[in-house]
Write a structure and sequence with these properties.
With 444 residues, the chain is an all-alpha fold. Helix 1 runs antiparallel to helix 2. The protein has two domains: 336 residues, Na+/H+ antiporter like fold (Up-down Bundle); 41 residues.
Length: 444
Amino acid sequence: MKLYAPWEKAFKKVATPLEHFIHAQTTTGIILMFMTILALILANSPLTQDYAHFFHTQVDLNIGSWHLSHTIHHWINDGLMAIFFFMIGLEIKRNILVGELSNIKIAMLPILSAIGGMAMPALIYLLINAGEDGAVGWGIPMATDIVFAISALVLLGKRVSPSLVTFLIALAIVDDLGAVVVIALFYTEQIHLIPLGLAGVSFLILVSFNRFGIHMILPYFIVGLFMWLFMLESGVHATIAGVIAAMAIPSRPKITPFDFSTHIKNLLQEYDNYPVDTDYALHEHQKAILINIQDRITAIGSPAARLEQDLHLPVSLIVIPLFALANAGISIDFSSIGETIVSPISLGIIAGLIAGKVIGIAGVAWLAIKLGIAQLPQESSMSQIFGVSFLGGIGFTMSIFVADLAFSGNEEMIFQAKIGILAASLLAGLFGYFWLKFSATKID
């Protein structure tokens, strides 16, 4: 008898074409929660000094006269997270080409809701921090953590429709795209034109690979690595290279589905023409045919699709958990936690991620539906959209990432931001989950 973890049982109940993607996000959510709790325990235990010292350890990379030196924390945030952003880029591209954002009529509601869900939190944060040094952090509450948000929704099983899950995925994808634009345009302190120009040349080389029909991954990896290094030196955050590189990866397979079917049928027919000598040994020609079939199977999948599938596991098990372990560990002085929570930065983030997301997502969705611009997802209600808008207030991964950029070098502001992010994400996630649990009708 096959056993499933609780979240896997809930996943089995969600009938959607995106089930593999959703399953990956849900599993990642469990791991991410564990690593967040571990980071908080380490940061508030006798091991706090060792924990901080480890992530501030300097790691050098030397090739001849060329030298690159960063802390482990920096390598995670600028290096490993580039892989995370690369996967986000692949997901954005797929959704625009063939996914939830490919049909403008269906995509209109999540697109408009995502825009409202980014603009309103930023506005609320700016109103609370007007004239304060912390005003630069307005981009922090704009983000939605797709991993935690989808995990919470999927755990509700048949209480929510697959179309509502799809709505949240599309909303989060647009939200991620908005966050990338904000990071590139507003959280770049100084631009060095020569490295930026070289990064642009690298991107053009990647595009030319695509145009010339190159489907091997290695050339894209080598040029993409150089583009990341150039972006690192340019002043634009290096993770943006991941998103840009993803746009150049071919999304078309080498052969069409029709050609694949024809070739496979012919190869199988040829395979059957050779007699099998024993139950265990294959004819040499049959072995060659099987290799040919394997090549055809590889060719029917585009490089973008293969990379997106292959990267889910390392990103889920290594990149995101390491990011949480390196960034979520904050030493909390519980005697002054009340004072920290009501600081303009924390208060702005909490109000932005909770009130701002609800007003922006649910408010814009209601207005768009009333005006006839968009329509509700199938088998869902405005009450459920209201609950989903709270889940949109879970800003964990991307919010922490933006906070580190916005308040770079100011540990006190980063601390206040992380307290606000953790508090808001917890409250938004719990309220959204229980609202949907008790207000949603179970689907047969």
